[in-house]
Design a protein that fits this description.
Layout lengths: L8 E6 L3 H17 L4 E6 L4 H6 L5 E3 L8 H20 L5 E3 L5 H9 L5 E6 L18 E5 L6 H13 L14 E3 L3 E6 L11 H11 L3 E8 L1 H10 L8 E4 L3 H9 L3 E5 L2 H8 L3 E5 L13 E4 L24 H4 L3 H6 L1 E3 L4
Length: 347
């Protein structure tokens, strides 16, 4: 395909969840350095605006989308915002638009804004993303093939952008055998919570991990939302002297807290991707997916089946209510996490 011309205006559609938004924002930040001539327009949800602004994007058009849990807001008046945003984008005379999902709903939305061409990934039938989308082909969409072995989010999104821009964009990720190295004591943050309960690591595992890390840490804290704070105090009541609980009631406060730590350890959630975007080292504890799929830069991703016959389940667990419920993440031990870290200073 022909690369985008100089000074092209490109619309990026990011209509899913917080984790997707910060991943898109951080990768697009690198793309903007490779092609500084491109005028990037971000079409996204209002609540994602601070994330794109954090990564240096200010040309944002927001709307509510009937995708990824957004339907209730959409039917309560959000449909009008979507129509207004479509007309705003059409007035910009977009040269190209792109989404990174490959779902028929994103493709259809891309058709509505009047760009010269909308680009969308076309997943190989054996690619794990192929199982997660509405696969109805939309006429007029330029589909970009993605091979099954190109299975890491932080690699296939840069590959799609590279094809679009005509310039190479890469994002370096750790291999599962690489350790994270620290040469001085550091502040460590835990993020144990996920909106999907099956992804959560057992409380006792977090407590044991805190005890193992305490000789190397200046402090250890739990980062949580106000709605999680009560549960956090109850879960970690036996180790108040070891673990501090920090509730973040705004994205700005959360960003400030993350900027002050040297290592964040958490389940696969928005927060570990935000920490990576802020250039922090992270350890990601995975449930339901192969660890490399969502591994951010500066991270060590840990995941295993634990003997589950349905692993990976693509975040659609079949184990709920069974004896092996969440066995994939429960089987990860604190010692595995410690083995992924190398401290080069004396204690």
């Amino acid at each position: 395909m022909n690369p985008l011309p100089l000074n092209a205006t490109v619309c990026v559609l990011s209509a899913r969840r917080f984790g997707d938004a910060i991943m898109n924002a951080s990768i697009l930040s690198q793309a903007s350095k490779v092609r500084p001539d491109i005028q990037w327009v971000i079409w996204t949800k209002p609540e994602f605006t601070p994330l794109f602004q954090l990564m240096g994007f200010n040309n944002l058009i927001t709307a509510q989308f009937p995708i990824a849990g957004g339907f209730p807001k959409f039917i309560k008046g959000g449909w009008l915002d979507l129509i207004k945003s479509i007309f705003s984008l059409r007035r910009l005379k977009i040269d190209a638009s792109i989404d990174f999902i490959g779902d028929a709903r994103e493709s259809f939305l891309g058709m509505l804004i009047g760009s010269k061409r909308h680009y969308s990934p076309k997943w190989s039938p054996s690619h794990w993303m192929h199982h997660l989308i509405w696969r109805m082909p939309i006429p007029g969409i330029r589909y970009l093939p993605v091979k099954p072995n190109n299975d890491q989010v932080y690699q296939f999104i840069p590959a799609l952008l590279s094809e679009l821009m005509g310039s190479k964009l890469t994002t370096q990720t750790n291999s599962s055998s690489e350790q994270l190295v620290f040469d001085s004591p550091l502040k460590i943050a835990f993020h144990p919570y996920s909106s999907q309960v099956f992804k959560q690591w057992p409380t006792q595992s977090w407590i044991e991990l805190a005890k193992l890390l305490s000789p190397y840490a200046l402090s250890i804290e739990i980062l949580c939302s106000p709605s999680e704070e009560k549960a956090a105090h109850e879960q970690f009541s036996e180790c108040k002297a070891l673990i501090n609980i920090t509730s973040c009631d705004s994205l700005e406060k959360l960003i400030t807290q993350i900027q002050g730590v040297g290592l964040l350890i958490g389940v696969d959630s928005f927060l570990v991707h935000l920490a990576s975007a802020l250039d922090k080292k992270t350890i990601v504890l995975n449930a339901g997916n192969l660890s490399q799929w969502w591994a951010p830069p500066n991270s060590l991703a840990i995941g295993q089946s634990g003997g589950c016959p349905d692993y990976p389940c693509f975040n659609e667990p079949k184990c709920i209510g069974k004896a092996n419920e969440s066995i994939c993440i429960k089987s990860i031990t604190p010692r595995q996490v410690i083995d992924g870290i190398r401290f080069t200073f004396a204690i």
